[in-house]
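// run 5 | inverse folding | seed 20
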């Protein structure tokens, strides 16, 4: 990605540009504009960049390129790429979920003690057949997360009613895998999300090192009591070995690698456990919170009477738990600076239908109009104290239904599977948490209402 002045030069080629005329159109001093266009100064605001794009009558892709170059110039290339990788992750995380289905074709016992494989599909079929012979045993995988169709294999087995227990060790080589389009850690998460979404007991571990140094040219392997599958770096060539002594050596290697690897710390979390887990965590940790459309958004604005109304007819224990959670969130926000992101569209929906975010997933009851106005009034009063930030719209390619809650050491993300069913992932991977937290804390200024603008819009809803 190039800096602003370089991109400006590209998109303005062939256009008749008069700096004084452009300066007048953009409402900036000609000398200042000249310095910005020649890379001697940074653009003063995103609005200025948009006015320059309008003056040049740029096509949408050219305009996007110019705006992106502005953000990169302001925050620096490394930071821009890091945050862009989060945008790309949320825009493409579903790509790891495919429709390819496998079926069992043979047993490992029927195969010879030594057999070679020379193409990826045959290798995948061999791995799938091995699934059926692991039973309650742990299947050991020393394999990159980029192994083709791994998620399809696991999901196919789950559709057969099988229950797998997998321990997966993989390497992350940041120098080789980090690019301007994606971050290696987020790419790994994207590859594994379909497995986390399923019913497999899946434990993953990683280390920051190249995996290719072990047993070249077959550095990877999948291991169970049924046999050992050695896999080449091209994921095409492989060897099936059924020899207990050799398998024992590989078990020893796997156990040693697991000892020195780090748990990836992502797991499927049931939606009805989110409140309990969050409550326990918030009561026992002193950390600020950054959230996007998550539980903390609404709860501190409620009181016992409002909770009783919206949980009417439900388990009394749920009401007691909700009250405890409400008090905990409120105390947390009053004690630690936090940032609670929400959209104006979300507030409009709340005023129209009487629910917002998680409330509709917990109860079928909704707030009446009087209560809605009361809650929005409290939102205005507590806007600055609790760290509310109202967005002008969706941002960064994030699905409008996605929810995030992030602290430095724990977080939750609600995403959706191929059937559009919501799935909650609990995250304790510090690298992933840092990327998400950094992203949410640094939303571009042109996508955020100032506190004064936000309060004014909210007041209009009450009229």
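// decoded
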């Amino acid at each position: 990605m190039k800096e602003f002045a370089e991109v400006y030069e590209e998109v303005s080629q062939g256009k008749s540009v008069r700096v004084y005329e452009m300066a007048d159109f953009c409402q900036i001093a000609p000398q200042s504009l000249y310095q910005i266009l020649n890379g001697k100064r940074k653009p003063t605001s995103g609005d200025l960049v948009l006015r320059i794009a309008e003056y040049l009558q740029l096509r949408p892709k050219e305009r996007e390129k110019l705006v992106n170059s502005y953000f990169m110039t302001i925050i620096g290339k490394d930071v821009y790429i890091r945050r862009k990788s989060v945008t790309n992750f949320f825009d493409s995380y579903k790509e790891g979920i495919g429709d390819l289905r496998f079926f069992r074709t043979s047993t490992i016992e029927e195969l010879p003690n030594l057999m070679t494989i020379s193409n990826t599909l045959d290798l995948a079929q061999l791995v799938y057949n091995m699934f059926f012979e692991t039973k309650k045993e742990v299947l050991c995988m020393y394999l990159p997360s980029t192994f083709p169709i791994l998620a399809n294999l696991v999901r196919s087995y789950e559709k057969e009613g099988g229950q797998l227990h997998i321990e997966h060790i993989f390497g992350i080589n940041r120098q080789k895998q980090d690019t301007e389009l994606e971050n290696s850690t987020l790419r790994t998460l994207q590859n594994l999300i379909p497995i986390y979404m399923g019913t497999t007991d899946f434990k993953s571990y990683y280390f920051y090192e190249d995996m290719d140094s072990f047993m070249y040219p077959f550095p990877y392997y999948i291991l169970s009591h049924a046999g050992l599958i050695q896999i080449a770096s091209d994921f095409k060539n492989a060897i099936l070995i059924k020899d207990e002594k050799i398998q024992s050596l590989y078990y020893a290697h796997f156990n040693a690698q697991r000892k020195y690897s780090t748990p990836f710390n992502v797991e499927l979390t049931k939606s009805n456990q989110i409140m309990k887990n969050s409550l326990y965590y918030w009561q026992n940790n002193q950390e600020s919170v950054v959230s996007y459309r998550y539980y903390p958004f609404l709860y501190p604005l409620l009181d016992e009477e409002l909770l009783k109304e919206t949980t009417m007819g439900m388990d009394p224990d749920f009401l007691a738990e909700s009250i405890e959670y409400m008090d905990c969130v409120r105390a947390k926000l009053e004690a630690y600076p936090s940032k609670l992101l929400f959209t104006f569209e979300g507030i409009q929906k709340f005023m129209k239908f009487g629910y917002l975010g998680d409330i509709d997933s917990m109860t079928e009851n909704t707030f009446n109009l009087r209560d809605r106005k009361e809650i929005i009034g409290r939102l205005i009063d507590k806007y600055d104290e609790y760290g509310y930030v109202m967005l002008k719209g969706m941002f960064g390619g994030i699905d409008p239904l996605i929810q995030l809650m992030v602290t430095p050491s724990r977080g939750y993300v609600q995403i959706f599977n191929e059937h559009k069913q919501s799935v909650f992932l609990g995250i304790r991977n510090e690298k992933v948490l840092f990327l998400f937290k950094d992203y949410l804390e640094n939303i571009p200024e042109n996508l955020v209402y100032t506190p004064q603008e936000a309060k004014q819009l909210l007041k209009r809803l009450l009229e």
